[in-house]
UniProtKB/TrEMBL annotation, chain A:
One of its GO terms (molecular function) is DNA binding. This is DNA-binding ferritin-like protein (Dps family). Gene3D superfamilies: c-terminal domain of poly(a) binding protein. InterPro entries: UCP029876. The keyword DNA-binding applies. It holds the Pfam family DUF1048. SUPFAM superfamilies: BH3980-like.
Automatic annotation (TrEMBL), chain B:
It comes from Antricoccus suffuscus. This is PadR family transcriptional regulator PadR. SUPFAM superfamilies: Winged helix' DNA-binding domain. The lineage of its organism: Bacteria, Bacillati, Actinomycetota, Actinomycetes, Geodermatophilales. Residues 17-89 form the Transcription regulator PadR N-terminal domain.
């Protein structure tokens, strides 16, 4: 009960734990893979516009899975992200659109049109 | 890969990956490797992975974590019942689309009847 009240102010403890684990995973990566994951993470944070902490952490955990596995297999960075890293990043982000702020606006638009078309 | 090819593949890659999984369960890298063998030479690992995340979220595949000799455990994906139904739907849509587009091409190549369906 108290914990829940505190989390209202501080944010979820669970998400913070996952964030620390994610940072620790990055530390273990070879330098070039770490550079790549840092770049992707930065882009995800800006372009993802994800407001839900758990969705954001799921996205970063999935990213870490991919990069860790690729590092273990020795997959070259270019073979992971391709010629157009932005394209890859956008495809990746699309999976987590449920957590995006713009989702509220999508629903608002859908509702407005439903109402206008008399479907509501 | 040309921009046009990338765009066209986008809509079909999901079905293609599910089709590969009907043969046998596989992990991400195996799927990419098999696609490359079959001529999709510029397919990148990340795109396939992002797609696997999506089909997992939509419940079309089952996922098992299998330990690997090197590095972290691998996620092995297998097609489940919903995935099978989705794939069937995909092939229907594909046949329809392929047939209609071919028809359109013949219609343009032979505007005076040849190659057209009555």
């Amino acid at each position: 009960m108290t914990a829940k009240w505190i989390e209202q102010i501080t944010g979820s403890f669970e998400d913070k734990k996952r964030w620390r684990q994610y940072k620790a995973r990055k530390e273990q990566l070879p330098a070039s893979y770490r550079t790549a994951i840092d770049g992707l993470e930065r882009y995800f944070m800006y372009a993802g516009a994800i407001v839900k902490g758990d969705v954001l952490m799921q996205m970063l955990d999935d990213l870490a899975d991919l990069i860790e596995q690729s590092a273990a297999d020795g997959t070259p960075i270019r073979a992971i992200v391709g010629d157009d890293p932005v394209e890859f990043a956008e495809t990746f982000i699309a999976n987590y659109s449920d957590g995006q702020w713009v989702n509220k606006e999508r629903k608002r638009l859908t509702d407005a049109i439903d109402q206008a078309a008399g479907d509501a | 890969m040309s921009k046009q090819m990338t765009e066209m593949l986008k809509g079909t890659l999901e079905g293609v990956v599910l089709a590969i999984l009907t043969v046998q369960p596989a992990y991400g890298y195996e799927i990419t490797a098999r696609l490359r063998e079959q001529g999709f030479s510029d397919i990148v690992e990340g795109t396939i992975y992002a797609l696997l995340v999506r089909i997992e979220q939509r419940g079309l595949v089952d996922v098992a974590k299998v330990p690997s000799e090197k590095g972290p455990p691998r996620k092995v994906y297998s097609l489940n019942v919903s995935g099978g139904q989705y794939l069937e739907e995909f092939w229907k849509s594909w046949s329809f689309l392929a047939e209609r587009i071919e028809l359109l091409r013949h219609h343009i190549d032979h505007p005076n009847g040849k190659g057209q369906k009555p």
